[in-house]
Amino acid sequence: MFLIISTVLLASLATAQYPEGSRYTPPISPGRGNWSQAYASARQFVCNLTLTEKVNLTTQTGTGATNTYQLGIIPRVGFRGLALDDSPTGVRGTDYSSAFTAPLNMAMTWDRELIYAQAFANGAEHRDKGVNIAYSPVVGPLGRAPEGGRNWEGYSPDPYLSGVSFGLTVAGMNAGGTIAVGKHFVLYEQEHFRQRIEWNSYDLPGVEFNITEPYSANTDDRTLHELYLWPWYDAVHDGMAAVMCSYNRVNGTQACQNNHLLNGILKGEMGFQGFVVSDDGSQHSGVLSSLAGMDMTILGETSPNGVEGLGISFWGPNLTQSVLNDSVPEWRLDDMATRIMAAYYYLGQDEGFPELNFAQGDLDTYGHLYPHAMEDFTQINQHVDVRDHHAEVIRRVGANSIVMLKNTDHALPLMSPRQLAVIGEDAGPSLFGPNGCADRGCDNGTLAMGWGSGSTNFPYLVDPLSAIQHRALEDGTVVQYVLDNYDTSLIDSVVSQAEACLVFVNADSGEGYIEVDGNYGDRNNLTAWMRGDELINEVAGNCSNTIVVAHTPGPILMEPWIQNPNVTAVLMAGLPGQESGNSLVDVLYGTVTPSGKLPWTIGKKREDYGTDVMYIPDGPEPNLNFTEGLFIDYRHFDQAGIEPRFEFGYGMSYTTFSYSNLRVDAVDASNASIGNDEPTHTVHSQMTANPTICPHHTTKLNASAYTFPSTISSVSDYIYPYLPRNSSLTTGPAYPSASVYAERSDIPAGGASALWDDVYIVSATISNTGETAGQEVAQLYLSLGHGEPVRQLRGFNKTCIEAGKDAEVSFTLRRRDLSIWNSPSQAWVDVRGLGGDVGVFVGASSRDLRLNGTIPAMINAKNGDHGGTVGQKGHSSLTTNDSTPFVTELSDGQPEVPVVTKRVL
Ligand SMILES: *[C@@H]1O[C@H](CO)[C@@H](O)[C@H](O)[C@H]1NC(C)=O
Ligand SMILES: *[C@@H]1O[C@H](CO)[C@@H](O)[C@H](O)[C@H]1NC(C)=O
Ligand SMILES: *[C@@H]1O[C@H](CO)[C@@H](O)[C@H](O)[C@H]1NC(C)=O
Ligand SMILES: *[C@@H]1O[C@H](CO)[C@@H](O)[C@H](O)[C@H]1NC(C)=O
Ligand SMILES: *[C@@H]1O[C@H](CO)[C@@H](O)[C@H](O)[C@H]1NC(C)=O
Ligand SMILES: *[C@@H]1O[C@H](CO)[C@@H](O)[C@H](O)[C@H]1NC(C)=O
Ligand SMILES: *[C@@H]1O[C@H](CO)[C@@H](O)[C@H](O)[C@H]1NC(C)=O
Ligand SMILES: *[C@@H]1O[C@H](CO)[C@@H](O)[C@H](O)[C@H]1NC(C)=O
Predict the structure, then answer these.
(1) Domain at 659-669+748-855: CATH code
(2) What is the pLDDT, as a whole number, of residue 754?
(3) Which percentage of the chain shows pLDDT scores above 90?
């Protein structure tokens, strides 16, 4: 897969006018297949460590203890520890680093090379700042509800598009040199009630929250697998070495101490080799979280946001104690430390990794090394410029992500207009500068990033107005503008003189710890902010060529103005990062032909989505029941027969394309590649096993070996691994009996490399029937039957085609693309064995389907036909856990059900 990608990359870079030899030419992804080596090195390192040294690797040192989050300093062996930081949009809280586009825009490009290129650049910047572990990328939230505050940090509510994007981002960031942390595992789909303290401190007018637990996200096993876990399979396959578990509970159990999720599904079923780290405040227990499979704690402290528990940890000294008193077996601690160090070796961080050279959140050159304790005044920021030529990647992602939804009478591209009007606060700079509000927690001036921990500082922000003026000078265009959304009469007079009127609107969202204009992370509504709808109609009332540009974290409703004939063009620009204006101008003036496609549906009204955020808790322990099952976004619109305004996958170009020559070809089973990604690390989902990571466990010494050494002086509220001085060793309860947390005696789908075998190739011819070169995102949808959505995305291919020319595009279907999750057997089942043909559709969007064909059911499913699968007999009925039958009853004599499972070599 990566070989193919890198070849394509080289080809595309050749046409991209990137400076030769620049750093962002992504090399082939490292690491795949190197886990066994990484584990060998990790074992060698970890098995020589003492108990407190191993604990050091698992526990961060606390809020503000050190100037950037760190852990794992082991002076005895000269290990300087690991540094950690956010975010998906860049290195958080520093200077001389880039502000990338939101991951949303990466998805809007549907362009594998650009996704990988930007991820690589972000990874490289983290690395060059000395960050070993970066909290990015995001696929939880997936985007169940369009109002979800953090959706823009991820990609799309479609699991296939998200899976490709998430996997490529992991691979790209890893290749850039930092350990990409996939987050948040799992079902973290809204901000409201994600944490107790945070939400109880919010008092809305007339409402006082008093929750005792974070919400529990509850969904059936099949939905969990086919929607919310799907992208995680991609990331594991693409080399994800770290995962962050989420704030919410799942089925009533805190995600970070959910044995079924972490040990059972993530490490067992998926064969994840890396480590699991908590979010800031998502760890709710010491012993249970260790036993359930959590491996590292940030910030190390007990309480959400570190508010209550400064310097107090569930781990640190408590973990040392738990191992000493047998509450946690020492092999589990070995496993935690080994998984962390394996990730480090997997990325090759043991060679030439730069030292941490900045202080998160502090731009000063000099400051305290221990800011909370106000100790050790020294140089804390070397202001290393890590931006390289990444601005060009950002600009390209921005331009190629713009989705054109309307373009009547060739309103766009602009052709040397005599006079332009630029209207709306979102067009210009903020009075407070691009970094005027902490963590971008406000909506002032043009919007280029959402708010929260997924944000970063802008090194500069090219606002649309400056970029437009700069470009307009070339044509001698007169540019008038009004940035005050409320000055109606001035707006009227300016737009009535213009040949084209660009009106800018936005909507914002972010993380739940910040409130903006009454929006507590999640959006309160799906409309444009700051009277955007009225603004557009006012402009259109006096300008027959009104071009709307929207900067948003997700869909906005457009009904008040979309059919206004004076609204001649509409561009959705997402949250484009530092190059916002330049990317926009590229499309406005036709330097780049628009090629983005919607990664979600734009509905006509909020209710049409069928899912929403829970804004008022349904009790002290809120329950978020995903009763819609598989039917979110377009899956729901299709199922319920609701006409959207613009469907998933939609997006226009300055040229036109036609589709022909559909071919659907089976891949010769004997050519199926043999999976080389077999998990090499023993799966520890069963605590009954007693895996031996290290040959000798530390012999327990007397307490003084674990208490605070007299040789170091402690920094206040800093988390060390030591027991308090004068502690005595007490023997506590032995860890719970295996049955408490080992739910399954075996994991049929474990590793499941056969899922990745190629089984079908679908191809088609796309012709550029217009007058300009352009890129088309051809999309493949399947109708799988058996209770599955009407159609679901299972392939896409973005191709650049010259005017009047054709291109062959192909889509490779892997076995997983034809499989559904069978809960009773805990396995993926290939639908071809279940009877009924699979419908194949190729087109320009989820509703603009130009070609169709079929993939036949397998009459006699035997091994060989679908190489490496294991037939499974004897299922008299297959039902989901919630007892909804989803396949027809099978009896003897009917086709065997091909269960996709681990290849038997
Ligand atoms: C401890 O380190 C030594 C020297 O690096 C190495 O040879 C040995 O294998 C390590 N011990 C274990 C148990 O891995
Ligand atoms: C643990 O880390 C701290 C720094 O965070 C260091 O001072 C201490 O020596 C380390 N302990 C061990 C046992 O390596
Ligand atoms: C919140 O609820 C808990 C238990 O449900 C109760 O003990 C407590 O008094 C409540 N606090 C407030 C401020 O209502
Ligand atoms: C949650 O409960 C449902 C219904 O019992 C079950 O199907 C599903 O597997 C459970 N999921 C998890 C992650 O425990
Ligand atoms: C150990 O954890 C408990 C919470 O379970 C906490 O109250 C205590 O302060 C912790 N001890 C240390 C030394 O952090
Ligand atoms: C800045 O943004 C905040 C929050 O969105 C808003 O309340 C405030 O009015 C804005 N300030 C200006 C000058 O626009
Ligand atoms: C939607 O929310 C935004 C931001 O809070 C606000 O400006 C706007 O007026 C709201 N829209 C409606 C229709 O209430
Ligand atoms: C369209 O614009 C013209 C002015 O250019 C105006 O007379 C007309 O009323 C507008 N139509 C609408 C529907 O706003």
Answers:
(1) 2.60.40.10
(2) 81
(3) 75
Distance 508 CA to ligand 4 centre (A): 33
Q: Which CATH number fits domain 54-350: 3.40.1110.10, 3.20.20.300, 3.30.565.10, 3.40.50.1100?
A: 3.20.20.300
Which of 527, 559, 615 has the most ligand 7 atoms within 8 A of CB, as the residue to mutate? 527
Angle at which helix 2-15 crosses helix 112-128, to 10 degrees, equals: 90
Identify the active-site residue in 86, 279, 608, 757.
Answer: 279
Q: How confident is the model over 344-363, as a mean pLDDT?
A: 95
Q: Which atom of ligand 4 has the smallest separation from the CA of 265?
A: 13
- CA pair distance 596, 594, nearest whole angstrom: 6
Amino acid sitting at position 186: V
Span 715-758, pLDDT tens digits: 988 999 999 887 776 655 545 433 333 333 344 444 456 888 89
Report the predicted TM-score, pTM, of the whole model to 2 decimal places: 0.91
Output the ligand 6 site: residues, CB below 6 A.
Answer: 431, 442-444, 516-517
Ligand 5 atom with the shortest distance to the CA of 313: 14
Q: Nearest residue CA, atom 13 of ligand 8?
A: 564
CB 427 within 8 A of CB 463: yes
- The residues, any chain, with a CB within 8 Å of residue 815's CB and separated by 6 or more, are 754, 755, 756, 757, 759, 828, 830, 866, 869, 900
Active site residue 463: no
Report the distance separating Cα 894 and Cα 897, nearest Å.
Answer: 9
CB of 183 closer than 6 angstroms to any ligand 4 atom:
no
Quick one: which of 299, 292, 240, 304 has its CA closest to 265?
Answer: 292
Residue 640: helix, strand or coil by DSSP?
A: helix
Ligand 5 pocket residue status of 554, Cβ below 6 Å: no
Q: How many angstroms separate the CA atoms of 125 and 562, rounded?
A: 40
3-state helix, strand, coil in the chain (%, to 5): 30, 20, 50
| Lateral strand order in the sheet of 827-830 | 819-822, 827-830, 897-900, 870-872
- Looking at 3.40.50.1700, 3.40.50.800, 3.90.180.10, 1.20.1250.20, the CATH number of the domain 390-652 comes to 3.40.50.1700
